[in-house]
Write a structure and sequence with these properties.
This protein is of the alpha/beta class. The protein is built from eleven helices and 20 strands. It folds into two domains: 340 residues, Alkaline Phosphatase, subunit A, CATH 3.40.720; 104 residues, Arylsulfatase, C-terminal domain, CATH 3.30.1120.
Length: 483
């Protein structure tokens, strides 16, 4: 009798083990590449000129690229907060770009992509720029990541001239900054003190990413690679310096493309490429006043830090073998905040009780273009300013101030001036016919204004809008603060 009981127990245990292995094998790995300040027109399949991106183009040919994909906001910290939490950044108190003197960061109560994956048994890692608080309690290991190597903020937040690399004079505000810390885990392991050091970053992150795949390919993993480049000061290894027809910026884009290729090779080598969702996108549009050290908005209006299309519409490529139809182009609306709920859906993960703004867009990833999971985009910027709303093919722009790039750009790492500008009255644009936002048709389509105003009024209640004097809404939460 005892032998029978033992046999039954062994059968149950074996079945449980096989079921666990089956469930594990059904969980796709996720690789998320996030580039800094790369414009809509800076990938070959999006129309880049002067350099080639064969690995990204192959990724798109084997998967899908989006033409109406938006970052959460058109600036560093805010966009990163959005992609990791599934929230419009102003909902969680994060705006603009955090500097070394700030004593705030991502609130520990926010539930990140990494935490969601970790709760599903995934190994998690980040290699690159964090920019959501540099103090220990804000760093990645406190937000669900098992491993971290990278810079805690932007690579121009250092005591050097970003064009020459020379130390700044004492009267300069940035001369008070410390050298850029290179962090592993929670500890500083080195410093970036020269332009030569900046040249090593893309290769460093790539090597760390490949090593992670080699070590973790026998278990489900989530790897986030937010490259420092192409934020100024630009840095590129000798492998690519001088190789493009577009100068240093083109060289940087070629090295980023190489990085994508190396990561793709590692997935193939370890036999996990067919079970990996591979995504490439960027944090915001190009920093156009840096001229030949800036990217291209691909004909869209303005760039980074503006609520015009060039600031927030970005490339998005996804390859998901067996799920995403090859070579397709998706013209539907989507946003970086949609990644968290979408990844939760494919990994059987649970969302936190915190209110989020993202929606599940996996139907689009699978080629079901009859679906419209996202019908609108809110263009928040600044502390909490609702500058525009898009619904379908229509975009309503509200009165607001911004810094325009419609001036002489700089050269070789020296920034040109920007012009203080203001939208004085509401403007309406048809995104299908006029993606460059040149023709205000507000007098022709008053019914569209009425439709979009309903969305704006709800947004102002939920999040606030400083443009109309509403400081915060009913659904906003506090940024993380040092205890």
């Amino acid at each position: 009798m005892k032998k029978i009981a033992i046999s039954i127990l062994l059968i149950v245990l074996a079945a449980s083990f096989l079921n666990a292995q089956k469930q594990k094998s059904e969980q796709p790995n996720v690789v998320l590449i996030f580039i800094d300040d790369e414009g809509y027109g800076d990938v070959g399949c999006y129309g880049a000129t002067g350099f080639e991106t064969p690995n990204l183009d192959q990724l798109a040919s084997e998967g899908m690229r989006f033409t109406n994909f938006y970052s959460a906001q058109p600036v560093c910290s805010a966009s990163r907060a959005g992609i990791l939490t599934g929230c419009y950044p102003n909902r969680i108190g994060i705006s603009g770009a955090l500097f070394p003197h700030h004593k705030v960061g991502l609130n520990k109560k926010e539930y990140t992509l990494a935490e969601m994956f970790k709760d599903q048994g995934y190994a998690t890692a980040i290699f690159g720029k964090w920019h959501l608080g540099w103090q220990k309690e804000f760093l990645p290991l406190q937000h669900g990541f098992d491993e971290y190597v990278g810079l805690p903020y932007s690579n121009d937040m250092w005591p050097h001239n970003s064009a020459t690399g020379h130390k700044l004079p004492k009267e300069s505000k940035r001369s008070k900054m410390v050298e850029l810390p290179l962090i592993e885990g929670n500890e500083k392991i080195g410093e970036i003190t020269s332009l030569k050091d900046q040249d090593k970053l893309t290769t460093l992150y790539t090597e760390k990413a490949v090593d992670f795949i080699n070590r973790k390919s026998d278990e489900p993993f989530f790897m986030y690679v937010p490259h420092t480049m192409g934020h100024i000061p630009l840095g590129v290894s000798d492998k690519f310096r001088g190789k493009s027809k577009q100068g240093l910026y083109g060289d940087v884009m070629m090295e980023i493309d190489w990085s994508v290729g190396e990561i793709a090779k590692a997935l193939e080598k370890n036999g996990v490429a067919d079970n990996t969702i591979f995504i490439f996108t960027t944090d915001n549009g190009p920093w156009l006043n840096f001229g030949n050290h800036a990217g291209s908005s691909g004909g869209l209006r303005e760039g980074k830090t503006t609520s015009w299309e060039g600031g927030q519409r970005v490339p998005f490529i996804i390859r998901w073998p067996g799920k995403t139809p090859a070579g397709k182009v998706c013209n539907k609306l989507a946003c970086a905040i949609d990644l968290l709920p979408s990844f939760a859906a494919v990994s059987k993960g649970k969302l936190s009780e915190n209110e989020i703004d993202g929606v599940d867009i996996t139907a689009l990833w699978k080629g079901d273009f009859d679906k419209d999971p996202r019908t609108s985009i809110l263009y928040y910027y600044g502390k909490n300013n609702l500058n525009a709303v898009r619904k379908g093919n229509w975009k309503l722009v509200f009165p607001h101030s911004y810094s325009s790039y419609n001036a002489q750009p700089g050269k070789d790492g020296v920034g040109g001036k920007r012009i203080k500008s203001r939208v004085t009255e509401m403007e309406l644009y048809n995104m299908m016919r006029d993606p460059g936002e040149q023709f205000n048709v507000i007098k022709t389509y008053p019914e569209k204004v009425e439709e979009i105003m309903l969305i704006a009024e709800e947004a102002r209640k939920e999040y606030g809008d400083l443009n109309v004097g509403v400081k915060s809404g009913t659904g906003t939460r506090e940024i993380g603060k040092l205890e």
